[in-house]
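INTERNAL AUDIT FORM
Audit reference: QA-55
Scope: verify that the stored structure record matches its stored sequence.
Auditor: D.O.
Record contents follow.
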Amino acid sequence: MNINWYPGHMKKTIEDIEKKLKLVDFVIEIIDSRIPYSSRNPLFDELLKNKKRLLIFNKSDLSDPKLNEEWMKKLTDENNFAISYNATKPNVNIVVKKAEDLMSEEIKKYEEKGLKKGPLRAMIVGIPNSGKSTFINSISGTKSAKTGNRPGVTKTNQWIKIHPKLHLLDTPGVLWPKFEENVGLNLAFTGAIKDEIMDRETLALKLIEKLVKIDSTLIENRYNLKNIKELSSIEIMDEIGKRRGALMRGGFIDYEKVSGIILDEFKKGLMGKVTLEGPNEF
């Protein structure tokens, strides 16, 4: 099953990014480290092919540290540097240093001509709700970019001077027209797209299924359950509903309520450090 979710303004954003690429030296791509494959827009490969990229593994505090390292190693080459980033512990100097390393050849060419390269200029791109605005605000120390845990908060391009050596051009989060079901689910689980792509109950069941496959203790520890591998996803949801008092009159499970609890607690990282896809899957 392919999922279509492509508001009209996103096509305009892609066109706008293409026009403004000539204003920047390189691109900073924000990746949600919980879904390093699903959170990368495939349109960027063609669009940004002539620009080097600094890949920021954002929300690294919510993802599996071992898989973070494996993913960053997989995606790093001469034109792409990947670094881990936690917005709760901002470090602008690391970002600036990595940007200078990435652009060292270009900086050297300026110096050989006796010229001084001014601040590096980077365009920030990413999918909706990947944490672009939070990243910018954390390294600039200001509320330069609007934030929110719903997709589509950044609406316009804006320059932000985060450091004497680095200026950023922010852009709205953008998706692509059609994605396969697994990618669509990962985007919905993490809040990159509205979870109305399917009913929340089905979405919560799919998330339970995925988490049990990755590590059943994530759910067992969070909801004080045991041996859930012996249960079906709906039985696990029933047990969570009972534990959390998500009940209707007559003692029936309130599936809408318990689904909301499961999805919201996953997005907030309350189940532990989880990466939903490994580098060996791709």
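Auditor finding: record pair retrieved intact. The chain has eleven helices and eight strands.
Action required: none
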